[in-house]
Amino acid sequence: MLGIGIIAAVGPVLAFPALAQADPVTIKNPSFEDPAVPDGGFTIGPITDWITSGVTGVLHPLTPFHFDFVPDGLQVRYSNGGSLSQVLDDFGRWQRSDRVR
Question: Where are the domains of the chain?
Answer without folding.
Answer: 25-101
